C-alpha cells in the first residue's frame, strides 16, 4: 500500500534553498522587497517540489476567498434547489463560487455548519433557518467574524441580517378566499410548527380569511406537525374517521397536500367535489397529479437571486434591506376553478 505523501510547506522549500520561510512566502506573493531572481528560483523550486498553498491560510490573510456559503434545510426539495440555482447564477457573475451545506432541519447541525463556515471559508452566508432551530445566537456569531448574512424564506427576529421572503400571509389568505369562493365553509388547515416564520404567517392568513366570511375555525380544524407526505397521509386518515368532515383542506406544504390527496382518492373521496385541496410551494409534481394540485408559487429562483444580489451589495458596503415578494395563487383541478 502506498503511503500518503507529506504535504510540502514553505519551510521545506526554505530548507532546500537555505533561506528563511518568510523569504519563501514573500517570493511566492511577488513581494517587491524580493529580487526578481529570487522569486523565479523560489517559484521554480516550489513547482518541482509540487508545493500547494494552504488555501484557508491564504484566505484568512487576504480576508477574502471569493466563496459564498449557502445553508438550506434540505437540498432535495425543489424550492431550495431552485433558490440555490438563482443564488449561484448571480454570484458567479461576480466571480464567486458557492459552498452548499444542509442542516437537515436540525439545530445542532446548523450550528456546526455556521461554526465551520466562519473559519475563513466564506465571504458571506445565505441561509434558510432549520425547523428545529429556536435559538439563533449562532447566526449572530457570524458578525463577530465580519461575515455578512442574508436570510431567505425562513427568517427570525433578532438576527442582524438582510431578509428575502415571500408574503406567506397573503398567499394563505388568497388560498382560503378562493376556497370560500367555491362555496367551501368547513376548511381545515395543516400547519407546520408555529415557531417557524413561514408556517406561522400562513396560519395567520388562513384564520383572517375565514373570519372575513364570518367563520371561526375550531380547534379540531388545525393540524400541526412535520411537513412530509407521510404526515399528509396520516392527517387524511384522521379526517376520514370524523363524523363531520371538512369540505376543504389547505396544507402549508405541497408534500403534505400530496399525501392527503392520494389517501383521500384511495378511499373514494371525490376531489374537489367532496374535498377541495390546496398546497403551498407550487412543486413540479403539482400539475402532473390527477386531479392537478392547486398551490401558491413562491418564486423560489427569484428569491435566491434577490438574496444573492443583497449579499453582494452588502459586501460592497451597502446597507441591509428587507425584500418581500408577492406570491401567486395557481388554481388547478383539486380546488375547482374560480367562479365568475
Describe this protein's structure.
This protein folds into 3 domains: 10-53, no CATH class; 65-166 and 300-326, Response regulator (Rossmann fold, 3-Layer(aba) Sandwich), CATH 3.40.50; 168-298 and 330-335, Rossmann fold. It has helices at residues 10-17, 21-28, 36-48, 55-62, 78-93, 107-117, 137-144, 168-181, 197-212, 229-240, 254-266, 300-315, and strands at 67-72, 97-102, 124-127, 149-152, 162-166, 187-191, 222-224, 248-251, 276-278, 295-297, 322-325, 328-330. α11 links the parallel β8 (248-251) and β9. The strands form 3 sheets. It has a 6-stranded parallel sheet with strand order 2-1-3-4-5-11, with helices on both faces. Strands 7-6-8-9 form a 4-stranded parallel sheet. Strands 10-12 form a two-stranded antiparallel sheet. The protein contains 12 helices and 12 strands. The protein is an alpha/beta fold and 340 residues long. The model has no long low-confidence stretch (mean pLDDT 92).
CATH H-level homologous superfamily name of the largest domain: Response regulator
Count of structural domains: 3
Rounded to the nearest angstrom, the distance between the terminal CA atoms is: 76 Å
User: Describe the biggest sheet?
Assistant: 6 strands, parallel
CATH class of the largest domain: Alpha Beta
Question: Which structural class is indicated by helix and strand composition?
Answer: alpha/beta
Number of E-type strands: 12
Number of helices: 12
Name the beta content range: 5-15%
CATH architecture of the largest domain: 3-Layer(aba) Sandwich
Indicate the low-confidence ranges by residue numbers. Answer: none
Query: What fold name stands as the CATH topology of the largest domain?
Result: Rossmann fold
What is the string of helix and strand elements? HHHHEHEHEHEEHEHEHEHEEHEE
How would you describe the shape? elongated
Give the strand order, joined by hyphens, for the main sheet.
Answer: 2-1-3-4-5-11
Residue share in helix:
40-55%
Rounded to an integer, what's the Rg over CA atoms?
Answer: 27 Å
| Overall average pLDDT | 92
Amino acid at each position: 500500500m502506498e503511503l500518503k505523501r507529506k504535504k510540502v510547506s514553505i519551510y521545506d522549500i526554505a530548507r532546500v534553498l537555505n533561506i528563511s520561510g518568510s523569504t519563501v512566502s514573500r517570493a511566492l506573493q511577488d513581494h517587491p522587497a524580493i529580487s526578481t531572481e529570487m522569486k523565479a528560483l523560489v517559484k521554480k523550486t516550489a513547482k518541482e517540489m509540487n508545493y500547494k498553498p494552504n488555501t484557508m491560510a491564504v484566505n484568512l490573510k487576504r480576508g477574502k476567498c471569493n466563496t459564498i456559503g449557502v445553508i438550506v434545510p434540505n437540498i432535495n426539495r425543489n424550492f431550495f434547489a431552485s433558490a440555490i440555482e438563482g443564488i449561484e447564477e448571480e454570484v458567479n457573475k461576480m466571480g464567486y463560487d458557492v459552498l452548499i451545506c444542509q442542516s437537515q432541519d436540525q439545530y445542532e447541525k446548523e450550528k456546526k455548519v455556521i461554526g465551520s463556515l466562519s473559519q475563513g471559508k466564506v465571504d458571506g452566508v445565505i441561509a434558510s433557518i432549520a425547523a428545529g432551530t429556536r435559538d439563533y445566537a449562532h447566526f449572530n456569531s457570524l458578525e463577530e467574524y465580519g461575515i455578512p448574512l442574508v436570510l431567505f424564506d425562513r427568517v427570525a427576529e433578532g438576527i442582524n441580517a438582510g431578509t428575502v421572503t415571500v408574503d406567506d400571509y397573503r398567499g394563505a389568505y388568497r388560498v382560503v378566499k378562493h376556497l370560500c369562493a367555491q362555496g367551501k365553509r368547513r376548511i381545515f388547515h395543516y400547519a407546520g410548527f408555529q415557531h417557524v416564520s413561514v408556517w406561522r404567517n400562513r396560519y395567520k392568513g388562513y384564520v383572517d380569511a375565514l373570519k372575513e366570511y364570518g367563520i371561526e375555525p375550531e380547534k379540531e380544524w388545525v393540524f400541526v406537525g412535520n411537513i412530509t407526505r407521510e404526515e399528509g397521509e396520516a392527517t387524511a386518515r384522521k379526517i376520514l374517521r370524523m363524523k363531520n368532515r371538512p369540505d376543504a383542506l389547505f396544507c402549508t406544504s405541497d408534500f403534505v397536500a400530496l399525501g392527503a390527496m392520494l389517501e383521500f382518492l384511495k378511499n373514494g373521496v371525490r376531489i374537489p367535489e367532496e374535498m377541495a385541496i390546496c398546497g403551498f410551494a407550487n412543486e413540479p409534481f403539482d400539475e402532473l397529479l390527477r386531479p392537478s394540485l392547486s398551490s401558491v408559487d413562491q418564486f423560489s429562483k427569484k428569491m435566491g437571486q434577490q438574496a444573492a444580489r443583497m449579499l453582494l451589495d452588502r459586501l460592497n458596503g451597502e446597507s441591509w434591506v428587507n425584500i418581500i415578494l408577492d406570491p401567486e395563487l395557481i388554481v388547478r383541478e383539486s380546488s375547482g376553478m374560480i367562479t365568475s
